[in-house]
Amino acid sequence: MGAHSFEYVINAKNNTEFRQEFLKLVERDRYEYGHSPYSGDIGQKHDYRMFDMVDPEDLFPLQERHEGDKWGDAHAVAVSDKATGEVSHYVVWGWAAD
Fold first, then answer.
1. pLDDT tens, residue by residue, 77-92
2. Which of 19, 36, 44, 57 sits a CA distance of 20 to 30 A from 83?
3. CA–CA separation, 76 vs 65, rounded Å?
4. In angstroms, how far apart are the furthest CA atoms of the chain?
5. At residue 30, what are phi and psi to the nearest 5 degrees?
């Protein structure tokens, strides 16, 4: 079996909003593609590993260092707004079996 990568941008201002939106994405994917363990998308994930907030230019290097694996949790991080230092949005990514 192979694996497929996924990445989503979630417009949330705090971890509580992010979690709600993450769970909605998971449920939407499961509804659209079923509960197959080989859908190749976020619906296979039950949880995520949250990293400390990063500046936009540090996002890609973080993703390269922490790609994840198809059976583990997704990865997530808050991305800062450079002007205010507050959360701009969140990014969730990972691999899923297909």
1. 999 999 999 999 999 9
2. 19
3. 13
4. 44
5. -65, -35
